[in-house]
Amino acid sequence: MSTTKRNHSICRWTFNAGKGGFVPGDIRPAWSGENLPTAKVPGLIRKEIAPRLPEHIQLGFELHYDAEVNEGNVAAVVDAMGEAGLALAMSTPGAHAHFAYGGICSLDPKERAAAGDLGKKVLDLTYGPLRPAWHKDAALAPSCVLWNGAWGYDMTTIGVREMHKHMRAGLAAFCQYEKSLGEELYIVIEPKPNEGHPAMLLPTVASAILVWRLIEEEHGVSRAKKGVNKELGHSEMIGLDHVYDTVEEIEAGTLHHIHLNSQGYNDGLHMGGPGKYDIDFGTQINAMNIAMAGLIRTAGYGRWLGHDMQARPYDNEQQGIDRVVRSVLSWDACDQAAAKVDENALLQALADRKTAEAEDIMRAALVDAHQAFDSMYNS
Fold this sequence. Notes:
Layout: E1 6-11, H1 41-49, E2 57-65, H2 74-84, E3 87-93, H3 109-127, E4 143-147, E5 152-153, H4 159-181, E6 186-190, E7 199-200, H5 205-219, E8 226-231, H6 232-237, H7 242-252, E9 255-260, H8 287-298, E10 305-307, H9 317-340, H10 343-351, H11 355-378
Parallel strand pairs: 1-2, 1-10, 2-3, 3-4, 4-6, 6-8, 8-9, 9-10
Antiparallel strand pairs: 5-7
């Protein structure tokens, strides 16, 4: 078993009463907003999840402003995080809950201004009342994730280019305000191909990497600590390869935060993947995840591994907790298996065109990962 510290973060939004819509919205009544306010979630994580994880795993907490943490509850949330030993891994403005017409990229100047103000509020809260919850190690300072859920459109016109310009200006203003507060956060964009609009301005990892370069050129914003929050499932939704996405992030120096989950990318078991909506299964053990674990290990990645996932629509509370445990252990098992791969032998087999031997190496790693998971889960 690994003894190297690994930093996994748990999302507050995982603990919800139910998805609603086409499935029940109240299947986990103990997790309703009334019964489980944000300030009670850290204690639940410490009591129900942390004891089931290996000692080398350190836990953090991820929060949306202003639905999950805000000026009214922040003191209680910070106290609860301190008691539970959870560091703030991520904060994010939940702009998608407020702005349906583009947010900072909207062609409506009033909406752009309001979205910009929301961004300042999440930064003020993160640098202010949330500051005691930051990890003492500056290398593990929180990420401020900017999800592109509001940055989309449902009609193709020449206005799309104007939206992209507004988005770049809005991101630059956000970064400039953060610089005035200390420039200590890692600001990362979370791309997604669709939801909450049929088309998004930043659908892929490559799109996010490009936009940071454009912002640097146009607005003089340094790309230091600016990057991408790749969510594995979002890459899978559009049929892309999150292993290659990781290569792009490493080479561009934008690998600062990761959201782990699996949509069921051709694993023969889970009904997700390309062409499907965002399912948010927990992390699964598969060869792609072992390859990605190997890449980030070699690159020296030691920041937060976020589990952006949901309980299944038919899970009760204990099953939902078990899903989180399984997700963390599954990634850790992939990481352990990746560490055992003889990379020189793998690369030599590929160089010699002995692709079947390369397959055998990865197949053995897959077996190793499943065995590691079983050992951790059953202990």
